[in-house]
Structures are given as C-alpha cells and as structure tokens.
Records
---
Amino acid sequence: MIRPRTPRGIQLGEFLTARRRANSRAAHGLPPGSRRSTVGLSREEVATLAGISVSWYTWLEQGRDINASRQVLTAVARVLQLTDSEAEFVFALAGPGKEVAATLPDQASAQLLRMIDALDFPAFILASDWTIVGWNAGYEWLYGSIAVTPQHERNLLHLVYTDPRLREILPNWERDSRNFLAEFRAESGVRLSSERHRAVVAALSEHSADFRAQWAEHTIDRFRSRRRIFVHPDAGELVFEHHRLVPSDAAELHVVMYVPLAPGGAAPSLGERSA
C-alpha cells in the first residue's frame, strides 16, 4: 500500500532532505562521498546511523502519512545534528493532528491597541502569519511607511523583503532578514499549510529573489530577545532591545516591542532621544 503524502509531511520531508544534504560526513566518521564530497549523507546512511529501516526514513523524506514515534524522530534528529528548535519543528510536523485551519484576526482588539498606545517606544502587533494588525505612534515614527502601506501588504515578512524603505533603515538587513525568516518558519510549523501562510510564501517566492534563496536554506530558530539597530532618516542610528509577548487571551497574536537603549544601558523614551 502506497502511503499518501500530506502538506505537513511534504514540509517535513523537504526540511529533512535539506539537513541531510548539509551534514558533515566526517562528523559521523564517514569517508568522502561521491566526487569526494565532504558533506551530504545518503538516506541509507541516515537510516543506518539512526537504527531505523531505510523504507521508513525514505517515507519520512517523501512526506508520506506515517506515524513516526518520538523515539524514531529523536534518533533522526540526533543523526542530522538538529538544534533544539529544529527538533521541535520536526516533532510538531510529524505529530498526530489535523491540518491547522485557524481563523486569524485582521485587526487587534481595542484593549491591545490601547496597551501599545500607552507605550512611549515603538510597538506593533502581529498575527501568526505575520500580518501587522496594529501599531502605535512610536512604530509609525520609526517606520513611517506603515501608515501608507495598503492593508493587504501589511505583512512584516513581505515588507522586509519587498520594501526598499524598510531595508534602508536596517543596516544589518542580511542578518535581520535571515533571523526573521528562521523565526517565521519555526513559529508557523504546521500552520504553513494554512491558506494565509501559503499565500505569504507564494507571493514572496514570486517577487523576491532574496526570499527564494533564503527560504531554500530551511533555517529554523526560535525567537530570542536581542539587540537591534535601525538608522532613522531624522534621528540617525537607534539601538533597541527587541522583545515579543503573547497575550494569554489571544494566542494567535504577538506584541512586538522595541525598547530604546542608551549607551549606558538605560532605556530613555523616544521624546528624550530626539530632544
């Protein structure tokens, strides 16, 4: 019986294939492969090292609908030297459950909007497909284009790859875009089979060569609060701490905050910075 392929399975298979082909042979005590290549394992080698059948691993990479145990997936993750974030991604995609078809909000609640309006630093609200569903005056000051961007284009990932004005204020665009994409992929997980998530990926694949190249890298990473640098057209270089919170009563939304950092580590208000 030929097992059917599923959207989640196909996504899992593509990720495992990319990681298998990027694995160091020497790290597993294997000699160079064909054409003296030092990277890339065969499916047979992964299956042997993980202690599973070649057919079973092949089905995983083909995106077949199989019930892989956590023990099997852990063994594959060990052989492919996956990070914790990458392993969690694999477990989520291979786990049981129906395809996700959650209804995503098109705007934030009045309560969340009032909360970010009370902040004197940039903040905005994302849906799980990274549509920007609300922002405060601080964020509009930092990235003024958000106010004139058509609603159907107000997706953070879309703007990062297609808006030259946003690229201009990100001096570390190459690093920032890769971080964003790795986080989007990790967070989306099984949601990538939803209509809205597929639409984001399809549109960017069509319109951005940078996105196509980076998406093919299959990078996965969880969000971590971190230092961010922007170059504002009026205020010059600005340094922020980038934080994100998930409201307990709105799990499909993320509140993103850029807390200004002074050289000594304090966080003055935007008004103090521009004074």
---
Amino acid sequence: MKKEYPFDPSIKHQLIIAIGMALWIFTFLYFTEPLDVSELYDNERLFILALYGLLGALCYVSILPIQYYLFKNNKERWLFVHEISFFLVFIVWSFLVMRSFYLYVVVRGEPNPYSLYYYLTSIFLPAVLTIFPIVLIGRFGFGKYKNKQIEEQKIEIKGDGNYEGIRLLLSDLIALEASDNYVEIHFQDNGTYKKQLIRARLSHLEKSLPTMMRTHRSYLINPMHFLSYKTDAGKLGLILSHEIFIPVSKTYTSITKETLNFTTN
C-alpha cells in the first residue's frame, strides 16, 4: 500500500513556508559568506543576499503548480513519493536559478568565478543540507496540523459490535441503507465510492445523525449528495453521488421534496 504523507494544500501556508525560507537563506548566507560577496559594500552585500533569499522563495512558489497537479491527479491524496519528487524538482530548479544568478549578477564580468563542480559541492549542497530541512519541517508541521483538523471534523458511526464502526467526514457520507439488523454505509473515500456493513439499527443511527434525511423506512440520505429526481415504474426516487439510486416512499415524498428543493435553491 502506498504510504500517505502529511500535506496541507493551503496557499497561505505554502507562502508562509516560502517567506520563512527566504529569511533563513538570507541569515545563512549572511553569517557564513560562502559566496564572492565579501568585497562588496555592506549595502550591496545585503542587497545581493536578500535577492538570494527572494529567489529561493520564488523557486519554491514557482513549482507549486506541479505540487497541486500531483495532488489533484491522485484524488487529493499526497503520498511520500510525491513529497520526494517535489523536493527533487525543487532542488534541481533552485540550483539552475541560483547558479545563473551567481554567474550573471554576483560575479558578472569577473575572470575567475567558482567552477560548476565547486559551486555544487562546496556551496549549494551544504546550503541545501542546512536550509531545506527548515522547508521539510514546515511542510510536515502544516500537514500534520491539517490532518488533525480533518480528524476533529470527522463523525463516528458506531455499530453494535465492540469493533464495528467507521470514522469519516460528514461530507463523505452519502447514504445509510437498512438490511434486517444491519446497516450498509454508502460513502466516498478520496472520491472513490465504497460500502461498509455494520450491525446496527437505522433508527438508532438516525438519532445520532440529525443532518441525515429519511426518504424511506430503510434509507437515510445526506442531502448534500442529492443530484436529481428519478421516476421508476411510477415511483419516485433520487439519484445521489456516484449514481446511487435511493427510493422515496409515499410517506416521505412531501417532506423529501420540500427539503431538497430548499437545500438546492
């Protein structure tokens, strides 16, 4: 099974990471002076080092579309392999930008700039080992905080058995279907439709889930997953997400229409 990795897609938090990295790059370069900036005036040196920090932040922000493409393409799941891939792209892209900035801005016109090998092994990689852990910690921390928020928002549907039940977001719960002394839970997990059977009574679950709406003595639905009405053999039914058909009994026809028409308007 592919291992998931804590991830927060918030643009605001990604920008905070970029700003923090810019400040850290500036601080690191200011105190270590690994570049040919010692001969510059103080104001020039500060300006160059600030630009290095800004470039680092821009490199990070500029590849965020790749991050969101991977996230969306994998049904909004972020895996450990995605995190590794993101960092590899980030490192390569940052090296190309930083090397170009060094050659064409910092030592432009100078006869003996650092060689590519020396710049890579003695300047860039040591900086990576010092600076990038801060980015890693920031991303991991925001990701864990995001996961904690999601867990706190989840509801728990408990069965009668000691270990029966499921935790999920209310927005992922589609419908509950009674079958004798069991209830089949229709839900989605990262956009994929799933079902789970637990030993429980629908009437008991209805009391603990007030936002669910009864359409039939054997069905409770989540109104936010309603798509359309459908008449089958003269009987009214509903189409929910993932094309799930739910019957509506005559007893609940009026209240179902009233509620759904209100929530969709």
---
Amino acid sequence: MTEIISTTILLILIMDPLGNLPVFMTILKNLNAKRRRIVVIREMIIALIFMLLFLFIGEKILNILNLKTETVSISGGVILFLIAIKMIFPSEENSGISSNEEPFLVPLAIPLVAGPSLLATLMLLSHQYLHHMSYLVGSLLIAWCFTIIILLLSGFFLKLFGSKGVNALERLMGLILIMLATQMFLDGIRTWFQN
C-alpha cells in the first residue's frame, strides 16, 4: 500500500496538473465550455494510452527503433523549448487558437501530460516493479484521474483569472517551461555522455 501511495505521488508530481493548467487554459480559452471538456477528456485518454504503452512495451519500442532513453529526453526538451518560445512571444496573427481550431495529440497529450520524463519514469518503474505491474497500473490510473479532475476545472480558473490573467500565466508558464526543457535536454546529454 505504501508503494502505491509513493508511486502515485511521484506520478502526479511528474504529470504536474497544476503546472500544466495555465497551458491548457491558454490553448483552450477560445473553445466553449462543453467543447473544452470534450477536448480535455480526449487528450487525457490519448495520454493514458501512451503512458500504458510505454509502461508495458516502451523499452521494446525504443530497442526496435535503436533509440536510447536519453534520446527521448533530449527530443522532449527541444519540443518543450519550442512550445515555450511561442508562449512567451506569441505572434500577432497567431496569438491563440481560433474557435474552429483545436489541439490534437500535441502539445496537450504529448509532451505536456505524457512527457519524456514521465514516459522514462514509467519504463524505470516497470523494471523496478516487474512482478507487481497491477500496483503500477493502479498508481498510474489514480494519478491520471487526479490530473483530469484538475484540468477539467480549467473553465473555473479561466473565469477566476480572466483573459489578461491567463495571458500573464501563459508567459510565466513559458519561462518555467524553458527551464524544464533546458533541464530535460541537459539530463539527456549528461546521461548520453555517461554511457
């Protein structure tokens, strides 16, 4: 039971629902509330599928493609860095997503929820709890449920902060994402040099 609780807390911290909230609010702010809920649920289901895939066959996929775990970390860092730059310096004509347009897969499901660090953690945990995969799946599902509940409340936070508040949060989140992306990139480089 203690292992499930500690693993669940670890996965929630890596999924970072509160940290991802400003990004979700910003990207979905032009959609109506009903559509926003549908998109959040769809993206979270996609993220869950990827998390379960990496939990069970992630290392095999990387071996087939002849990729190392640090490659996932470096590429994830680059993608997050590019997303963060757009958040800090939005262009005039494309400062947000139009009401007809909605994200699919990137960047909400991957890399924000099911990011490289989470996927790598799931692969490591699957080695650690090889004979207790049911515990690991249970922890993942609890963390996923907690995350989706927080993200479904994004409409409430949008009303609370208003559009100017969301824009300010977007730039702040962009700065934090740049730091996370740089750390992810440097971790991948360090691991690559160590091997």
